[in-house]
Write a structure and sequence with these properties.
0% strand; 102 residues; mainly alpha; 2 helices; rod-shaped; single chain
Amino acid sequence: MTPVFLFILILLLIAAAFGVLGAVLKAALVLALGLILAFTALIWGGWWYAKRRVRRWQQDLDRQLAEKDRRRRAIDVRHVPNEADGERPTGAPLEPGEGERP
C-alpha cells in the first residue's frame, strides 16, 4: 500500500474509534464536492473566456478585411489628375489636335 493510502486508513480508524467517523466522512465529502465544483467552475470560466476572445478576434479580423476591401475600392486622391492644371484623366479621349506631332 502507498503511504498516503495507509495514512488515510489510519485516520479513518482513529475517527471510528472515537465515534466521529460520520462527521469526518461528511466533512471529507463537503471538501471533495467543493473542490470538484471549484474545478468545474474554473474550467467553464476558462472555456467561456476563450470563446469570447476568439469571437472578438474574428470580429476584429472581419472588420479589418472589410476596411481593407473598402479602401481598395475607394478612389486614391493622390493619383487623380487635376483637370485645372491641364492634366488629362487616364482613359479620356483625346481632344482634336492633341496627340498629333507638329
